[in-house]
Amino acid sequence: MELIELNAPYLLFVGDAPDLLMAKTAKGVAHWRPERCLAQLRYPESPVDLGLPDMDVASAAAAGAKTLVLGLAPFGASLPQRWIDTCVEALAHGMDVASGLHIRLASIPAIVDAAARYGRRILDVRNPPATLPCGTGLPRSGKRLLTVGTDCCVGKMFTALAIQAEMAARKLPTSFRPTGQTGILIEGYGVSVDAVVADFISGAVELLAPANAPEHWDIIEGQGSLFHPAYAGVSLGLLHGAQADVLVVCHEAGRSQMDGMEGYPIQPMEQVIATNLAMARLTNPKVRLGGIALNTSRLSEADALAAIDELAQRLGVVVVDPVRTGVAPLVDAILAGETA
After folding, report:
1. Looking at the domain assignment, is residue 130 inside a domain?
2. Of 127 and 238, more confident
3. Is residue 324, in this structure, part of any structural domain at all?
C-alpha cells in the first residue's frame, strides 16, 4: 500500500470550525500523534481548541512546521476562499499541504500554481489507488477485527486505534488498517473507502488487510453504519472485504437519532449486532462479536459507568468506553474467544 509520508511537525488547520465534530480529523491527529503536532491554526470565531499553541502560518513556519494539515471538512462543493488563501500562504512559507477532503486540493488552480511556484507538495489522502481489484471473498490467513457502528461518528476509528495500541503493548503482532481520511493522516497510509467506486470497496479492503501470519491481528477501521441510509453501502463493502474474525460494535450513549438523518432512529443494539454478524458471515461464517465500545462522552462519570454495566448485563458481553475505562477488558475477551 502506498505510504503518504507527511513531513512533521504539523500545523493543524482548524479554520472556522464551530465544534470538535467538524474538526474531528484535526482532533484525531492531535490525540494519536501529538509528537508530530506543533500548533493549531484557527480563525478568531472558532471555539475549537485542540490543546496546542495557536500560531499563524508565518510563526508556525518560523518554528519549523513542515506540513499544513487541513483538519476538517467544509459544507458545500467548494473550498471557502480564505481556506484557499491560507493554503497558498503555507505553500509560500515552505510547507506542504495535506488534506482528507472530498474536494481535491489538486483541482484548485490557485493551490496547484502555488505548489509549483514554491516547489512544495499537495497531498490529497482521499485519493484511492487508480487500479483496485474486485473482492474475491477467498479465505486468507491472519486474524482480522473490524469496528462497526450504530451510526456515523460514534468512535469506530478511536476504538480501532485503542485496540491496536493495547495489543501492541502486549507485544502481539498487530497493524491498524485505516479506511478514512483521519486514520490515513494518523498512520501515513491506507485507503479512504468512501472515495472508492462501489464495485471495488471489498477488493480495496482485501488489499489493505491482506493474508498475514496466522497470529497477526489486523485492526480495521470501520465506516458508517449498515443502518445509515446514506452510508450503508460503504459499511457493507467493508464487512465483506474485511472477512473479519471479530466485530466490535460502537455506539454513542444517549444518541437516539441518526446523525443528520431526520426520521431515522438508532436501531436497538440487538438488531445492530445480529444484522452485522449476518452480513459478515458471507465471507467469514465463523465471525463472532468481541464486545461493545460505548462512547459515554455526553454522560457524567456515574451515569457512564451505569450505562456500561446495564448494557453488559443485558447483552451478556464485554462493554467498555475506550476513553473512560480503556479497552483492556475488551482485548481480554477478544483473545479469550480464540480458544473458547
Report:
1. no
2. 238
3. yes
Please give the model's pTM, rounded to 2 decimal places.
0.90
- Three-state SS string over the chain comes to CCECCCCCCEEEEEECCCCCCCCHHHHHHHHHCHHHEEEEEECCCCCCCCCCCECCHHHHHHCCCCEEEECCCCCCCCCCHHHHHHHHHHHHCCCEEEECCCCCHHHCHHHHHHHHHHCCCEEECCCCCCCCCCCCCCCCCCEEEEEEECCCCCCHHHHHHHHHHHHHHCCCCEEEECCCHHHHHHHCECCCHHHCCHHHHHHHHHHHCCCCCCCCEEEECCCCCCCCCCCHHHHHHHHHHHCCCEEEEEEECCCCECCCCCCCECCCHHHHHHHHHHHHCCCCCCCEEEEEEEECCCCCHHHHHHHHHHHHHHHCCCEECCCCCCCHHHHHHHHHCCCC
For 286-321, write each residue's pLDDT tens digit: 999 999 999 999 999 999 999 999 999 999 999 999
Tally of domains in the chain = 2
Q: What is the mean pLDDT of residues 120-135?
A: 90
User: Tens digit of pLDDT for each residue in 58-84?
Assistant: 999 999 999 999 988 766 567 899 999
